[in-house]
Amino acid sequence: MKDFRKFFLLDRNVVYLNHGSFGACPKPVFTEYQRWQQKLELQPVDFFTTVLPREMAAVRRTLAGFIKAPAQCVALIPNATFGVNALARSLALQPGDEILTTDHEYGACDKVWQFTIQKTGARYVRVAIPAPFESPDSCVERIWRGVTPRTRVIFMSHITSPTACIFPVGQICARARKARIITIIDGAHCPGQIPLDLGRLGPDFYTGNAHKWLCTPKGSAFLYARRDVQHLVEPLIISWGWGEERQFSVRNDFLDYFYWTGTNDYAAYLSIPAAIRFQQEHDWPQVTAQCHRLLGRALAAIEDLTGFPSMYSSDSLYRQMAIVRIPAYKNSALLKKKLIGDYRIEIPVIAWNNQLFLRLSVQCYTTDSDIEKLTDAIRSIFRL
Fold first, then answer.
1. Is 283-382 CATH 3.90.1150.10?
2. Scanning 21, 63, 144, 263, which has its CA 20 to 30 A from the CA of 304?
3. CB neighbourhood size of 283 (10 A)
């Protein structure tokens, strides 16, 4: 693999194995981000009233092409958690209604639904998906056993945050549509890590971050809504896109609700096309394939050290991010502090289902040397 580290601003003194948390932006994309910020400051009024509507529409078209969805169904938002909030606040849930989910969901989104059920009297029902992770068909059947006549929503991750498993959301969405159950998919880790075809995947709602694996600046994401369910969405913030007389309108209720929520820095959104170009120019399918192979070697090396089995029944269940079990330690926070403090390794330590894991991200800039430093650190810390 070519030397991608030169494209990133990352501290070379740190072994950075945590791309999954907040991403990292390549220099050419970051330069584009700063160009848009400067353009705004040259003439703010003209930028917001003339330039921004045109450019945001172009960004939506580009992003929609990338995720294979109609541009009229794709709104730009700051992050995936924002999207889950918008949907949870919009749905007219009643006491006894059920939101079906898994025990692999992102903590902040779990909080969104906990807040929602306190307000509505609905129930948040978790289905346990044990590890090692099963085949997609087995996963679908296990999730579907949680469906009841009261199930109104299925909320689940496409790639999970704590366990980095790719869930078979397409099969779930197809089955849910037949049962008239709304599907909300958290795809925070998907754009740029796995190919997306939302038309084929078929969710009612899908939210994904661009600032993680697509490598845009922080604060750029999208919310997709099928045309036939867009009427269910209400604005999370009331601003000029709501009501009879609309300023900055794009003549679509769903898009208007998210397009203009007040004066903001829109440069991260406007940099999305540059990030897509960067990956296209560097043959990203080949890059992700190389990252996947390096990650597989890393998991095997750590599993050989610890003696713990793989968490995945097949390497098709992960792409560039995966978890690997490690021995017990005093607590996860102390271990993370030791890894960064003593070994200069930035990696999440995950406590899940009473076991301890490292969540390892392999991005284009990750090298075999980085993996060797991690395995050496594990050998030293746990005296293996």
1. yes
2. 21
3. 12
